[in-house]
Each structure stands twice: as structure tokens, then as C-alpha cells.
Design brief:
- By secondary structure, the protein is mainly alpha-helical.
- Helix content is 73%, strand content 3%.
- It has a two-stranded antiparallel sheet with strand order 1-2.
């Protein structure tokens, strides 16, 4: 007998839209559900509070914590003390508000909200209940960020004890947090000792929780030390060839690129390559070989780097995948260009374009063209570069980092410059303007100006007429999504 299909929830639908890149539609969906909840149940109802939480969840997905906090304050303002489920949900909204405030940079207010939430959970659940542990953990995490390490460790230890005693799977994230705090304190205590009683699936979840704590935008030595501790645990419990062991090694390599230990980075990638070859994962091994070439090049070992890039070419040829072969050719060509071996570099970069043409991968073809176009621009062939870069931009998402780079170089070509690499900030602003104009309600704007001021995007809107409320709401949503999306590009480029 077939299992009846259930309709996806509003949040499930919104997440699916976000995953497809339809972020504006995702927010419109939850905002519409919020209006429905307010009309049907009123602004003081549990349904309204839940809808505000859904709005906040989508906004956090979209990296808009300020707006998420605003929605969550409205959710938390709904009191229904006689409704058990509503009271429990409100504790979740308080925790989410603390999370949003933290990501918005208001750490002191976040701490206050999370402490209030812990107090509410203690009264609601009691000190030994997992529900209390759920409130302790984010507070301990925030205290780690604020440098209040002793109290953070105390709360993390209490959280681990609660989840361990309750047999709760959430112990994985608590163990990961405690490990980082121990390393931040400089303690010699092995953070993953005494876990023999945990099943392998919880060990795997603990490992994933550690990986989730790695922030390449804010690289830190304590979490790097935890990765070494984790690798020992994973190798012992799950085996050296386990996918999690590979993921840990890859995370070590990525983190060391930012922390600056080139030798450790290269060693980690070599080990990844060995393991991938051992299990016969040829596609991922190709990626690791190219990563090894980049790591060796950035570590000042050009001869070894060239050997790695040539190994990648052999691997790509054996795979028979045109897109991957084009990528390997492009990366080798870029390496040769950096080594000032221009005739050789041009040969490989042109071949990368030729190989990508029939493969049906528009983005890979565009990236190959971008690499060739910039190479030719730097060599002074501006007319050819202009044609190649113009064509390349037609086949790639305007928000892609390579597209931003191509646009800045094309601007430089159009101004007659063969070097200087263009104005990256202006390229981001131009791409943002195109994004917004393609999505605003038709006929609302007479003009739109997007520029850069103090390393941030500044938008000037010129209305064609007084917009209707629905048009204004849509315009504001599009402006916000566009600015937030390209602000991330700007931080990477400028």
C-alpha cells in the first residue's frame, strides 16, 4: 500500500527555493504565510509567532540577521502561558533571537537574550533535561567568542553532561564546542578522551560538528588544533579511509592556507590524494591534484607545483570528461602565466577554451574564456581580449567571482588599459545594478545608480511613479537581496 504524500511545509518550500537560488521568492512565500497567519489568528497568536520565526529562519539563510532579529522580537512578544507547546516554542524563538543578534554583531544584547532564555528553560524543563542543555550550548558558544573562556567551559561541560545523561544525539555539537574551548584555554586535556561508550554514528556526527565550526573568514589556531585531535579519533574509530577522515584533512588544508603553514597544508593534501587514489575516486583525486599544485605554488615550490599540475592533466585525460579537462588545462595555464612563461601559458589556455566548447558546460567554457581574455589583456592584445571577455560574461552568473573579475578587466579594456586589473568594486556595483533591474517590478524605476562608498555598496533609487504598497514591498525586497548578495562579492574583491 502506497504511503500517502504529505504537503511540504512553508519552510520546506522556502528552503527548496533558496537551494535553487530563488531567494526573493523564498522570502515572498514566508511573508505571505505571515500575512495569512495574522489575518486568520491575529498578531498575538502562537500561529503568528511561528510564522514570524519562519520569516526569521529564511532571513538567516539569506544572511540578513538584522531583519531576522526584528521578526524574532515580534515572535518573542507573543505570550501564551497556558499553552504548553506555545510556551516551549517561545523558548526556541528566544534562542533564535540570541543567534540572530550574535550574527548581527550585537554580542552584548545576544548574551543578555541567551541568559534570559537559559533562565526560562531552567524553570520550564529543569536542570537535567535536554531542553535546558539546548539553551546552555549557544550561550557557551557566545562566551567563547567574547573571550569569557572559563565560564564558557563550565557551561559546555554542563551541556555535555546533560546530553550524555539523556542519551541525546545533540551531544555531538556539545563535544565539538567543548573541544574548541579547551584548546582556546590552552588546556592539555585531550578533548575527545572517554568517548568509547558512544556509537560510531555519534562519533561521525561529532566530527561533522567540528567541521561546521571551521570558519575560513575568521581562521583560528584553536579549531585547527581540534582538527588534529579529531583526525586521531576518526582514524581510530572509523578508519583512515572513512569519508570523514578525508573531510578533516581537506579542512586542515583549507584552514592552513589562511593560517600560513604551507608545509602542513601540502602534507594534508598529499594524504587526501593518497586516500582518494586508494579508493579509486578519480574525480575527487583530480581536484586534489590541482589543489596540491596550487598549494605548492603558493608555498614557493614551482617545480613541484608544475609536476602536480601535469599529473592533474594526465588524470583529466584519463577521465574523459571534457569539462574537467578544460579546468585542468586552465589551471595549468594560469600557473604558467604566473611563472612568466607566456608562450606556454597561452597554448594551454587556448586549449582549455577549445576543449570546453563542445562539452555543454556553459560556466566552464566562460571561465576558460575569462582566463584567456585576462591573459591576453595583460599581454596588451586589448581588442581580442575585449571580444573574449564580452562573450564569456554571457554564459556565467553575474554574481560568480570569475564574472566579477571578468567585468572589472573588461572595464579596463574598454578604457584602454592593459594592466591594473580594472576596478573590482565598480564591477561588483555594475553586476548588482543588473541583478536588481532584472527583478524589480516593471515600470517602477526611472533610474538606478549603484556605487561604492567606504568599501560598501550604495544604492540610489529614482522612482518613475508613486508605487503601490505591493510594488514598494517587492522593490524593497529586491534591493535588499541584491545588495546583500553582491556585498559578499565586494568583501572578497575589494
Amino acid at each position: 500500500m502506497a504511503t500517502p504524500q504529505t504537503e511540504p511545509t512553508v519552510m520546506e518550500q522556502a528552503i527548496a527555493l533558496i537551494q535553487r537560488g530563488e531567494t526573493i521568492q523564498a522570502e515572498e512565500l514566508v511573508q505571505s504565510a505571515l500575512r495569512t497567519a495574522e489575518q486568520q489568528f491575529g498578531p498575538h497568536s502562537p500561529q503568528y509567532a511561528n510564522a514570524q520565526n519562519d520569516v526569521a529562519s529564511v532571513l538567516m539563510y539569506l544572511r540578513a540577521p538584522d531583519r531576522a532579529a526584528e521578526a524574532l522580537r515580534k515572535a518573542c512578544a507573543v505570550y501564551a502561558p497556558d499553552d504548553y507547546e506555545a510556551s516551549k516554542d517561545r523558548l526556541t524563538y528566544i534562542m533564535n533571537l540570541g543567534f540572530a543578534l550574535r550574527h548581527a554583531g550585537d554580542l552584548d544584547e545576544a548574551e543578555k537574550v541567551l541568559r534570559d532564555g537559559v533562565g526560562g528553560r531552567r524553570l520550564f524543563y529543569g536542570r537535567k533535561h535536554a531542553g535546558y542543555g539546548f539553551g546552555l550550548e549557544p550561550l557557551a558558544d557566545l562566551l567563547l567568542q567574547k573571550g569569557k573562556l572559563d565560564e564558557a567551559l563550565q557551561l559546555a561541560e554542563e551541556t555535555v553532561d546533560i546530553f550524555w545523561g539523556a542519551g541525546h544525539a545533540r551531544i555531538a555539537t556539545a563535544l565539538a564546542l567543548r573541544a574548541e574551548i579547551l584548546r582556546a584555554l590552552g588546556r592539555d586535556t585531550p578533548p575527545f578522551d572517554g568517548l568509547d561508550g558512544l556509537p560510531d554514528d555519534i562519533i561521525a556526527e561529532t566530527g561533522q560538528a567540528v567541521l561546521n565550526r571551521v570558519d575560513l573568514h575568521n581562521p583560528a589556531r584553536p579549531i585547527r588544533q581540534v582538527l588534529d585531535d579529531l583526525l586521531v579519533l576518526v582514524n581510530r574509530r572509523l578508519g583512515e579511509a572513512h569519508p570523514l577522515a578525508l573531510a578533516v584533512l581537506q579542512s586542515i588544508a583549507n584552514l592552513e592556507r589562511h593560517l600560513g603553514d604551507g608545509q602542513a597544508r601540502v602534507a594534508a593534501i598529499r594524504r587526501v590524494l593518497e586516500l582518494l587514489d586508494a579508493v579509486g575516486d578519480r574525480e575527487r583525486a583530480l581536484g586534489a591534484a590541482q589543489g596540491l599544485g596550487l598549494a605548492l605554488s603558493e608555498s614557493g615550490q614551482p617545480e613541484e607545483a608544475e609536476q602536480a599540475y601535469r599529473d592533474a592533466l594526465v588524470r583529466a585525460e584519463a577521465l574523459g570528461n571534457a569539462a574537467m579537462r578544460s579546468q585542468a588545462l586552465r589551471n595549468y595555464g594560469l600557473f604558467l602565466a604566473e611563472q612568466k612563461r607566456r608562450p606556454e601559458a597561452e597554448k594551454w589556455l587556448r586549449e582549455a577554451v577549445e576543449v570546453a566548447m563542445p562539452c555543454g558546460d556553459a560556466e566552464m567554457l566562460s571561465r576558460a574564456r575569462i582566463a584567456l581574455g585576462i591573459f591576453l589583456q595583460h599581454g596588451g592584445d586589448l581588442e581580442t581580449a575585449k571580444g573574449i571577455l564580452t562573450e564569456a560574461l554571457q554564459g556565467i552568473n553575474p554574481g560568480h567571482p570569475d564574472a566579477i573579475t571578468a567585468r572589472s578587466h573588461l572595464d579596463a579594456v574598454l578604457s584602454g588599459s592593459s594592466c591594473g586589473c580594472g576596478d573590482q568594486g565598480k564591477a561588483v556595483a555594475d553586476a548588482c545594478r543588473e541583478y536588481i533591474l532584472a527583478r524589480v517590478p516593471p515600470g517602477v524605476l526611472s533610474d538606478l545608480k549603484v556605487g561604492i562608498e567606504n568599501n560598501d555598496l550604495q544604492v540610489q533609487v529614482f522612482l518613475d511613479h508613486e508605487p503601490a504598497p505591493e510594488e514598494l514591498e517587492q522593490l524593497q525586497r529586491v534591493l535588499h537581496h541584491g545588495v546583500e548578495a553582491f556585498r559578499r562579492n565586494l568583501r572578497q574583491q575589494v
